[in-house]
What we know:
Number of helices: 7
Order of helices and strands: HHHHHHH
Number of strands: 0
Radius of gyration: 17 Å
Largest sheet: none
Helix content: over 70%
Amino acid sequence: MAYISVGAMVLCGLVLLISAVSKARSGKDYAxxxxxxxxxxxxxxxxxxxxxxxxxxxxxxxxxxxxxTVLMAADLNTGRWLATAGLGLAVGLFGVLTVAVWRAVxxxxxxxxxxxxxxxxxxxxxxxxxxxLLLLIAVLGVATLSPGTVDPVIAALAAAGGAVGAxxxxxxxxxxxxxxG
Length: 181
């Protein structure tokens, strides 16, 4: 079961890494992200704090998860502690983001998805589903963490599966448009 955790750590870590990089790669990208926050019902006076906290959480969780993945491959107990912390924080972050997106969609606020860079697509139910799936993956990752040794080859395959899953999550809107139109 630890291999499910490895896949979950890589998937969540890469998704959060790309999300953080897309927000922080330039001042303009960060400003556009921060400007999109009030549409989620966050009061204007909290926009800067919320933007900074979101970015900091994404960076911190990414560091925990990707370091834990490397350490678990070496079968170090430290890796399991980092994995538990990272996946636990990912559950919290994905939970908050799922609720925020759900509220924005339910209120028809016109909020746009700036999860992975500039976008002009208004949030829809499919974004709630995407975030709920990320939440479920993080929960599964926590639930399947177990002590013991891991086979490095199988762990590498699980990590590769997580990386492929991350690509699907990151390109979610493109895939949804392709399949649904």
